[in-house]
Design brief:
Blueprint (H helix, E strand, L loop, with lengths): L1 H34 L1 E8 L2 E8 L6 E5 L12 H5 L4 E5 L19 H15 L4 E6 L2 H11 L4 E7 L13 H8 L3 H6 L6 H9 L10 H11 L4 H29 L3 E6 L7 H10 L3 E6 L5 H17 L5
Parallel strand pairs: 3-4, 3-5, 5-6, 6-7, 7-8
Antiparallel strand pairs: 1-2, 2-4
Helix pairs in contact: 3-4, 4-9, 5-9, 7-8
Length: 320
């Protein structure tokens, strides 16, 4: 009898930990998978587009479009908050991050072409319905998508993504001068925008606590800006930004006609896009809500938890 008891005890010592580990793994796996971010690439119009994807694929989709001078890396803290209940996709635009950045003489860097590439991206992924998060350059790119695919858009989150002239600060003066006179002299002046000092400024200006700004953010952005030929890519896009301002009336007509559910989450100390640009959404769209946070351009760097909670509440009210 003692031998039997000893054998059973030994068996339990060997087997029980494995049973408990497997049980815990099975219990934890749904949460782990929901929080996992997958890093992928896809070919779109001969360009390799990098993107981050997380969350259940059968859940409502949210498409995140970054701005200048960053990439989908800016969403690294937001994605885990939202992917528990939503299918989140964040691509890098051509010329940014880990997506292809062909020479500006071989690829025309215009916002129409950025939108065309993103159109190919959503078509290849088969996205039928999705909410849209737009930031900075992602706004004119995303709003072009909304104009072309109004039936696909369930709602819009604009984080310092401008669509109104009153939202442009004096920080745009030298760029607007270049629009009026696209001389080499005026183009050369704008080279300051791609320097490490300018990148650092965009992340820190208007931020109450600079220690919240992770140094890998502006360091990674600058790494990509410093690639051979990338300065010319960015100068081409700065020149073409005038087409976005020309399209503002069409974007505004879309807001009036379609009245999409819209949440503007805005760093109110942004040196480039003023709070007036956020408030203006309410003028055209009765379904627009505006929330301000005391921070700068890259509001997610300092307020991702608050913004994430506000976006999650907003998404819960959207049509599926």
């Amino acid at each position: 009898m003692k031998n039997i008891i000893k054998s059973v005890a030994t068996l339990l010592i060997v087997i029980l930990p494995g049973i408990l580990v497997n049980a815990q793994a099975k219990k934890a796996s749904p949460a782990t998978e929901a929080e996992a971010i997958h890093y992928k690439t896809i070919k779109v119009n001969d360009l390799t587009i990098f993107y981050r994807e997380a969350g259940p694929k059968d859940a409502p989709t949210l498409l995140l479009l970054h701005g200048y001078p960053t990439s989908s890396h800016m969403f690294r803290n937001l994605i885990p908050i939202l992917s528990k209940k939503y299918h989140v996709i964040a691509p890098d635009l051509p010329g940014f991050g880990f997506s292809d950045a062909p020479d500006h003489l071989k690829f025309e860097y215009t916002f129409d072409n950025l939108a065309n590439t993103m159109q190919g991206f959503i078509d290849q992924l088969g996205l039928k319905r999705f909410a849209l998060y737009v930031f900075d350059y992602g706004a004119p790119t995303g709003f072009r998508l909304a104009l072309a695919n109004p039936e696909k858009i369930t709602g819009i989150i604009s984080q310092n993504g401008n669509a109104y002239e009153e939202g442009l600060s004096t920080g745009w003066n030298s760029i607007q001068k270049y629009w009026k006179d696209p001389s080499q002299e005026n183009r050369d002046v704008l080279k300051t925008f791609v320097t490490k000092e300018s990148t650092w400024f965009q992340y820190h200006e208007g931020v109450s606590d600079p220690s919240l700004i992770a140094p890998e953010t502006y360091t990674l952005d600058q790494h990509f800006l410093d690639r051979p030929g990338n300065a010319e890519i960015q100068l081409d896009l700065l020149k073409d930004y005038r087409t976005n301002v020309a399209l503002y009336p069409k974007f505004q007509a879309y807001f009036r006609d379609k009245k999409p559910m819209l949440l503007a989450v805005w760093g109110n100390q942004d040196p480039y896009f003023l709070p007036a640009g956020a408030e203006a959404y309410k003028r055209d769209n009765p379904n627009a809500t505006v929330k301000f946070y005391k921070t700068g351009h890259f509001a997610l760097e300092t307020h991702y938890k608050e913004i994430g909670a506000d976006i999650a509440a907003f998404l819960s009210k959207l049509p599926k």
